[in-house]
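Exam prep: given the inputs below (a chain plus calcium ion), describe the expected output before reading on.
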Amino acid sequence: NQTDDWWKKAVAYQIYPRSFYDSNNDGIGDLNGIREKLPYLKELGIDFIWLNPIYASPNVDNGYDISDYQAIHPDFGTMAEFEQLLAEAHALDIKIIMDLVVNHTSDQHPWFLEARQSKDNPYRDYYLWEDATADQLPNNWQSFFGGPTWTYDETTEQAYFHVFAKEQPDLNWKNPTMRAAIYKMIRWWLNLGIDGFRIDAISHIQKEPWDFEITDNQWAPFMNVSGIDDYMLELKAIFDEYDIVTVGEASGVSSEEAVAWTGNDGYVNMIFELEHCGRIGEPGQQKGSIPHLKDTLTRWQNSLADNGWNALYLENHDTPRSVSVYGDGSEKSAKALATLLLLMKGTPFIYQGQELGMINYPFRSIEEVDGKDTLYAYQALLEEQPELTSEEALTITMNWSRDHSRTPFQWNTEAFGGFSKTTPWLAVNPNFPIINAQYELQQPHSVVNFYKQLITLRKNTDTLIHGTYHLLLKNHPSIYAFTRQSDTETWLIITNLSTRSVTIDLSEELTLNDWQLILTNNQKLSLSHPLTLERFDALVYRKRH
Ligand code: TEU
Ligand code: CA
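Solution:
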């Protein structure tokens, strides 16, 4: 029975291990640090954790460039420590899913070190090589991190293909021997007892022919290209042998196609779409557009209403902080966003620190930045628009930088926010004396306690898990309101995602009787026509039928 899937009732929590908790005070978060903090996650009400990559890696892309899939990076600990973390999490009834990065490896992976030796090396065909010269690459496709998708290799006078950095060569999925090696690795982790995978950049594993002509979308040659289904079905066959949850990061898969990806007999249980956060950082798009957010999330809710399942998120390790993008940095806006995230239909993913209302970092100079793509974009911007001052270029670049979400978790008021006793790898946000877990847990009206309430509410309410979603006030520029409905009850969720007070009229959509206010971040408003909402008000009502 589909409705019994455990992951539909679950609340997930994303941990960026490097920035969660540093147990041995070397400035880098680690596995023992996560293990020490499991009780915190239990108290929050978390059912499963997604761990960003913890494998051996030269860290060109913070662990997304893997040099050994079956080894733990010494920064994070040992395999024994990983197994201890898994065992203790399981004892608390918390599951753990791992990042599965199989679009590419590190250029330091033994397979690639072999492959680049010679054209007839047995590993050569694990990757994508074409004849080239230093000035004549096989085509003009551009990579996500900037620059060509091809890097010329002098030894063999060919170029290899990569959709991310040149240190992340793409695997050749057409090669069955390569696929078998990846599948063996996948089984190895699943046999160890992990609870599933978040599958990185999986929609890029299939590429168009090299002479494919790019028209409107420059990423089209490697975005969910036809033929990918064969590989997804092979992966699915493995996943189906285990009781696990699988979440594909699948940019380029449309909300219509997502039915095939996540519905009955879908390849994975759910996918992360990237459309709703896609516009942040475009020129003139410093703040997230609320109409765009509403439209996109609603399209996905509707598309997967009867078949398929949504993975819900407002931020992750690749985005700025949602409270800075869609909110005004205030606690109140953090709570309004939490209300949306936890009460839509799908499995919510809370990104570490989001439950505290952590906000963007006030970067003052490019020297403070770590993210490779951010540094590249900053340089490119200065080259394209030499009239910009470095401050202006920094401001524009930082609108969407990945570094905002990667600053260390703020545990308490001690030095470095209690993350570490040494200077951390990335600076702690100076607001840690007010935004931190310890302080907030003691304050009944804090952001973290609001999250706890929402998580409990959701987990105890079948209608909030399986009930239908219906958007209200579709064309309103700042009100995000919807209902969740089952045979027995209707829930009404209203948020005002704006710094202004707004008066709305729901008389065409709702009758007034029998609504009970269940949760709010501000005033105890009973439902009326018209209804005035203050800045970032969030209200949750229930009506039993
Ligand atoms: O991100 C992948 C990612 O963002 C692309 O798949 C996306 O489709 C593209 O940028 C177009 O919008 C994942 C990880 O989350 C990220 O941290 C890694 O850097 C990246 O993969 C490479 O492994
Ligand atoms: Ca450490």
